[in-house]
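go over this:
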Amino acid sequence: MERPFENNVEALITDFIRSQGGKTVVEKLGFQPKYNNADYIFEEENIIIELKCLEKDIFSESDDKERNEILLNKWISENIISLSDLLLIILGRKELPLICLEEILKLTRKTFQRILEKANK
């Protein structure tokens, strides 16, 4: 089963922001600045928003397939999941154990930290 994907996330978010009374920073300024700036502003609430979209699926790229296979083999050898569990997980009939999800998140934490640090600047 393929994950749903929105081709133009920025347009979708911009429409939502506008529907909630916000606007783009470019709309507020009246021009596109030549320096890095936030994407959205809610003036009355004194809120600015920086949009960050993950353009790479960090769980299914070819480089990650090897990592995922290593993780699956590790979890099976440590009896965290069985082969029959694995089939049920792949079919979406069983959840991946929390310990496995935590291990995946540890591996992807640096990617998310880098994105958030850039957004906070």
About this structure: The first helix runs from residue 9 to 19. The radius of gyration is 20 Å.
